[in-house]
TrEMBL record:
It comes from Streptomyces tanashiensis. This is HEAT repeat domain-containing protein. InterPro entries: ARM-like, ARM-type_fold, HEAT_type_2.
Amino acid sequence: MNAEEIAALIGRAGDEDPEVRAEVASELPAALSGRADDPVPAVLVRLTSDDEARVREQAAFALGQLAEVDGPDIRAALWRRVGDEDPETHEEAVRGLAVRRDPGAVPLLAALLEEPTAYVQTFTAAAVLGDPGLLPALRKFDPADPGVGEALQACDPAARERRDAAAGALLDAVYDLLPSADAALVASRFEAHLTLLLVTAGGGGTTWNADALLVRAGGDPRRAAALVAEDL
C-alpha cells in the first residue's frame, strides 16, 4: 500500500457511514509501516472510541490482534474498551491485552474462559500470555480442541520448560547437521511458539515454527533438523 492509498484510507476513517469506518479499521493494520511517525496506530486508537459498537469492536480487534504494535497509548485504548458495554468489543480488548502479555489481562482472560462458549482466539491469546493462573480454566477443556493444547503447554511452567529444552536441542542438531548455518531461535511478543530462523547466504532468512517442526519429527530434534535440511 503506497502513501497515497494510506492517506485515502485514513481519510475514510471519518466517513459518516459506520460500516465504512468499520471497514477502514479492518484494513488499517495492512498499512502499518513500523516507523516512529506512522499515523495508523493513532487512527485505530481513535476508532476504538467510535460511537458505534460495530466500529469499536472491529477497531479493537484490528488494534488488538492484527496490528503488531505496542505502547502506552495502545494499551490505554484497549483498557478503555475492557469496560465497553458491547460484549464483543470487551472480548477483543481483553485478547488484545493478552497478546501483549499484559499481566492485568490474566483474570479478564480467565473470565472469558469461564464463558459457555470459548473461542479459539481466546485460547490463542492464553497461549501467548502463558500465565499459570489460566491453567484451572484451561483444564476444563479438551486438549484436542483447536488451540487448547498449545495454551495448556504455554501456561504450564513444566511443559514450557520441556518445550524450550526440545527447541534448544533442535538448534544444536541443526548446527551439527549444517555446521556453516547461521541459525537462531526467536520468540515474538505476539506469538506463543518459538521460531527457528536460518539466515541464508544471500542475507535472506527461512523460518519454521519450531514447535510444529518437532511435532512433524515425532519429537526427535535430529529428525527435525533433517526436515530443515530437506526444506532448504
